[in-house]
Amino acid sequence: MSTTWQDEIAAETRGGGRISDRFIVDKVREAVLTQRLPPGTRLPEVALGDIFGVSRSVVRKALTRLAADHVVSQQPNQVARVRAPSIEETRETFSARRLVEGEVAALLAGRLDEARLATIALRVEQEAAAHARGDEAARIENSLAIHHLLAEHSPNRVLGAMLTDLILRTSIVIALYKRAGLPSCYLAEDHPALLAHLRSGDGEAARTCIHDHLQALEGLLDLSTRETRIDLMAILGQRETASPERPGRPAKGYLPWRLYRPCLLHDNAVISLGSRARMALTSSLRWTLAAWLLAVAPASFAATPTVAAASDLQFALAEAAKRFEAESGQALRLNFGSSGNFRRQIAQGAPFELYLSADEAYVLALHAEGLTEDEGVVYAIGRLAWLQRAGRDDLPAEDDPLAGVRAALAAHAQGEGRPRIALANPEHAPYGVAAQQALERAGLWEASAALRVLGENVSQAAQFALSDDARGGFVAWSLALAPQLAERSDYVLVPEAWHAPLVQRMVLVKGAGETARAFYAWLQQEEAREILSRYGFRLPGEAHAPLGGEEDAGAPGAVSETH
Fold first, then answer.
1. Does pTM surpass 0.70?
2. Residues 81, 82, 88, 90: what is their CA dihedral angle, to the nearest 10 degrees?
3. Interatomic CA distance for residues 50 and 58, integer angstroms
4. Which residue range forms the structural domain that includes residue 347?
5. Are 71 and 28 within 8 A, CB to CB?
6. Which of 219, 251, 279 is the last residue before a domain boundary?
7. 506: which strand partners?
8. pLDDT tens across 389-401, in order?
């Protein structure tokens, strides 16, 4: 921005204006959006009143508005804070934004005039230029402007308003959970690609581009808080300086030391120092205290490795990791998503230590780029299945698993609605590629275009397949066998010969720590192989996927060819 908030205040004052609560709301919102005001920051009424030169009643009105907009949280008899959403809320926020902004982008494709497209194009150029010169604040500002322009021009005003709110919420969680050591969340190809789709009028491509962009952003989060010292005056005002008239004393209008509370954010709790203790602490002593807090922090806070795993492993790997943690006492952080998105994030520097892909090609590509320790090992071969809601009497037969697709096409042709066919996005999800190959083999790929709905990964495709307006969908057999899905769904396997083998490979990323190495080795042992086998994975060296029955002890579900 070309002016500071102090300049704006001076301009208003010269015109006889007064600082309103709306002005404070805008300034705090802007600081949160641009990630200069981190989640969890205390917002004392007296401090804000001193910064903006207004009474506490005006500050209270501003904080009430900010709380209504989900920017700050207020509790009785407690100082307001910038909201610090939970991990669950973070995932829900990204999921909601993918749905809303994807729809907005699809609606806007081909509808924007040249003037509006030029405005977006300028922001895209300015974002790239800011990143090139290392100006992260300007990069964030231009990135936000691109998404706000989508919200502003949305043909559906309700979706536009929802998107505006979700952009703010997403900015908060990115500021809170961005991985330590990651200088920027810049994704160089995404915004130019979005602009191209908006210009060409390809709505589905624009929707997919937004979905991929937000999925990649979510993958750059580590979902753990870090210690941060917050300086309200530096963010919202000016730093304390000596007054020329009174050497050694703060200048008039600057925040006095008694109101300036250094604090440490730790695991969503704020540890603040009392006024007398603050005055007694020297700079070195403050750092000693910070070091002590880190020393007594839980071990999991310090060095928990992050594992990037294909979504078909959502239940199997969670069970395996739980057993590994119980046996070794070492904690893991599991991230599930599409293999292609994880491959891109690792190439861009995301600090994953172990990568389990549903397509070995992604692992081999990373190795060719020198980003992994070796080529890794094949840990499983996956199976594709047709999944639909339980209780229907039209489950396809074992020898015709695509009958549900043909039935959906027939119903649509007869004007009986649009029964959806779910699958993972083939652009970056291996199970989506397998589903496309099976449909192409049967001559149904082009015909089913109007009915297809794409999930960001195979786990989301399973959710779509079981929704009320879906006929069914193509998912990983490992998900269909999980108790969470088995109790409300039926499935039939798609023959392996109908698509390329789903050869799944895992590898250690360069720089992986000891815990990641131990888990990598453990996953190759018999105990882990038994877990993968129970979830329908064929293990290296086996001729066919393991089959069993209801009597299999400990099996997550019946593993017959149809269910």
1. no
2. 180
3. 12
4. 302-381+502-534
5. yes
6. 219
7. 356, 377
8. 998 888 999 899 9
